[in-house]
Structures are given as structure tokens and as C-alpha cells.
Amino acid sequence: MGQINILVVDDEQHVRQLLNKVLTKEGYQVCTACDGLEGLEILQTINVDIIISDIKMPKMTGIEFLHRVKEMDPEIAFILITAFATMETAIDALKSGAQDYVTKPFDITEILTAVKKLCLPVQKRDPFGGLLLGARETQYSISSKSPKMQEVLQLAKQVAACGSTVLLTGETGTGKGYIARALHQWGLRNDKPLINVNCGAIPDNLLESELFGYEKGAFTGAVSSKPGRFELADGGTIFLDEIGDISPSLQVKLLRVLQEKTFERLGGIRSVKADVRVIAATNKNLLKEVREGHFREDLYYRLNVVPIHIPPLRERVEDIEDLVTIFLEDSARISTTNTRKELTSEAMKCLKAYSWPGNIRELENIIERCVVISSGNTIHVDSLPIEVREEKEVSKSFHKKQEPMLNNAIDSIEKEVIQNAMTESGGNKTKAALALGISRRSLHRKLQKYAMND
């Protein structure tokens, strides 16, 4: 991300001056407004990435301003400042679309931390070609033409209503966050908050206070108490992304939350209860991490109640065409001409032949690049990155020779894994299917394929 533009909106002049000075010193481009109306006028003239706004202001409250901003541009990140640090205020702010909130009187490091978190890149679109609905909607529609992804979605719908802890696995960029969102929206807690925490993006010394909150005076700069993400998610769902990156000490505390549904804020002595459904995700092999002593075995089994594996893009080539259509539409909306470009059939063949190590995120980036560098309204093969063009030629002869051998090896491994799951479940197909992360119908087909039925 290049130069970050921040708009500070507060009716107190000394707050505006302080934030302007500190944020400018940190290298951000800053402009200020004394109320929401002036803030809306500024948004008409400049592009803003992040807004820091007070809640209690004349003419228009910070929540009202937030709603108006989200109507204009839902991608602008929002931090709300409040002097009333109640749970209701915090939840209302997050449900209205704010990414974070800070309580007055605030320590400037808390503001800087919140801003730095928002500067991390995020993926904006539903990677399955379905409709990505707002946070308050009770329906959630995602779709896929890939049989493997259809099995994933079917399993997700089955387990969504049961409330069990789910562990999502898969390579980076496959869309684990969107499946987590679907699980929440399809479940019985969809009228309560869905709180996201990227465990890998937050420094370890800050993650504990982010998850569990802190009491006033718990550390330098903690000038007021603040509830953590587990408290904010009470009654709803918490999504712990990159769970494999948390430290051993935090693993112990997270295990306690999963077992006892209680925790203490940092610097606190009172136990806090939280009725929260946990969905975790990782691109690591957690079982391998357990064997190597990097991840607690008891925590692994607490998280791995219902495992769902998201296949990489190279295993669901059927979705590439729809995804390209989505990303081309995105590019048209943000371009100056508002004209959508199209790919030639040869360019599409190259995309389908590529192995996609970066998955959906890589595809989105490549389409954006092609839109920028291609002349006219048609994207030809020569606009694609060289690695995409070359891989198609190299793979033609290789796959012709290796595919039968590879398929036989995969079948052998798959048969052994299914056999082990059936043995461990005592022959119960429903339990075996859940353990394998596939539907019961899919398991039945595989048992027939390998002649393993009864």
C-alpha cells in the first residue's frame, strides 16, 4: 500500500491538532474536520483510506457519520473514538461497520496501533462468485461450480447450525475467511456479532490484550479499561485467523477459554464469561506443528472438532472463469472510464492451465495488473505475467506423462486415509465423513470407488 490518507474528525481542536501532528510524523497524509458534515465535504474532494472520528459531536454523531461514509464508499476503514466505553457502544460501532474503536482519554500508541492494523492488505470480494452480503444480513449466498468446493459448502451448511468449533485449513488465499463468514451467517447466531482477529498480523505482545481486553493501569498507556474481542463476540462468533501463529503462552489461555468459557482481562482479577462460537483457520499443518512441539496437542483437538479443508484454486479450475468475471467488474468500477475489459479465449486457457500458488488472491492481483497494462478493451495472452504463459507450455508434456502415475498415488493415499477414518469411527459413516471433512454422500461414493462398502 502506498501513501495512506487519513481523515481525523473531532469537534475538539486540540484532539485534531494532536492526531494531525503524530500521524504526519509517522508518514501518513492527514486532513482534519471539526464535524461529520465537514468530513463529508472533504470526502467529495479527496480519496481517504482511514477515518478516525469521535462519536459525540454536534450536527451529526460519529455513528451517523459512519453510516453516511459507508454508503459513499464501504471500503474506507473506520476507527471510532468514544468517551463511553460500554459494551453496547463497542458492539454498535463494530456492527455499524467500524473496524476498531478507542476510548477517551486515549494513549497515542493505541491510535497508532489501530491505524497500523488497518494498513495491512485485506481481500475485499467473495472468492466463490456468490453474493457477499452486509454484516447485518441473515442470508449469505456463495456458490461454486467446482465439485470439491460444492462438497465444502455442503459440509459448511451442515455444521453451521450445530455451533461446534470449526477448524478451516487450506493454503493462503483460498478463501477461508469467506467460509468463516458463511458459517456465521448460516448459523443460529447470525443476529449477533462476528468478530475477526488476524492472529498472525498482530504482534504477540498486543494480541493478548486484543483478545481478552485490559483493565485501566494494566500497562503503560492503559488509561482506561477496554473489553477484548471475546467479550465483543459474546453470543456470536469469533474468527481466529492464522491460529497456528500464536505463542505457547497464548495457547494456554485460549485453551482455557475453549474449555471453561471464562478468562480475565489483562491486569484484571475478575473472571469474564463469554458464550462464543469459535472458528479458527490456518495455512499450516497443525498436526505436524503438534508433533514438532510448536502447538499444544490439547488445544489442537479442542479446535479440530469439525475440520473443513478449503481446496486450492488449481483443484477447482471450474471457478476461474467466474472469478475473472468478478475481478474484471471490480476493476471497471474503480477505473476512470468505467469500462469493463474482456479476456481472449487463449488468455483464459492460460489462466486455467496455471498452478496458482497464491490462489484466488494471486488471480485477483494478476487481473488487476492486466487491466492496467493492456491497451484497448481486450486482454491478450501477452498481457499475462511470463510465469503464467510459460507454465502452460511446460505442463502440456509433463502432465501427459505424469498424470496416471500421480492419480494412482493419490488414490492409494486417499483409500488409506478413508480406511483409517472408518476404523477410528467404528464403521460410523457420519462420524468418518465429519473427520474427513467431506459429506456423507461423498464418503459413500468413495467407499464404492475403492470397493470398501461393508
Write the layout of secondary structure elements.
Elements: E1 5-9, H1 13-25, E2 29-33, H2 36-43, E3 50-54, H3 62-72, E4 77-82, H4 87-95, E5 100-103, H5 108-118, H6 147-160, E6 166-169, H7 176-186, E7 194-198, H8 204-212, E8 213-214, E9 226-227, H9 229-232, E10 237-241, H10 248-260, E11 262-264, E12 271-273, E13 277-282, H11 286-291, H12 297-303, E14 306-309, H13 320-334, E15 342-343, H14 345-353, H15 359-373, E16 378-379, H16 386-424, H17 429-436, H18 440-449
Parallel strand pairs: 1-2, 1-3, 3-4, 4-5, 6-13, 6-14, 7-10, 10-13, 15-16
Antiparallel strand pairs: 8-9, 11-12
Helix pairs in contact: 2-3, 6-7, 10-12, 13-15, 14-16, 16-17, 17-18
Description:
It is a single chain. The protein is α/β, with parallel strands linked by helices and 454 residues long. The protein folds into 4 domains: 5-118, Rossmann fold (3-Layer(aba) Sandwich), CATH 3.40.50.2300; 147-311, Rossmann fold (3-Layer(aba) Sandwich), CATH 3.40.50.300; 314-384, Helicase, Ruva Protein, domain 3, CATH 1.10.8; 393-449, Homeodomain-like (Arc Repressor Mutant, subunit A), CATH 1.10.10. The chain is 47% helix and 14% strand. The chain is built from 18 helices and 16 strands. The chain has helices at residues 13-25, 36-43, 62-72, 87-95, 108-118, 147-160, 176-186, 204-212, 229-232, 248-260, 286-291, 297-303, 320-334, 345-353, 359-373, 386-424, 429-436, 440-449, and strands spanning 5-9, 29-33, 50-54, 77-82, 100-103, 166-169, 194-198, 213-214, 226-227, 237-241, 262-264, 271-273, 277-282, 306-309, 342-343, 378-379. The strands form 5 sheets. The chain has a 5-stranded parallel β-sheet, with helices on both faces. The chain has a 5-stranded parallel β-sheet with strand order 7-10-13-6-14. α6 packs parallel to α7 (176-186), α14 (345-353) crosses α16 (386-424) and α16 (386-424) runs antiparallel to α17. The radius of gyration is 24 Å and the shape is globular. The termini are far apart. The model is unreliable at 121-140 and 397-401 (pLDDT under 50).
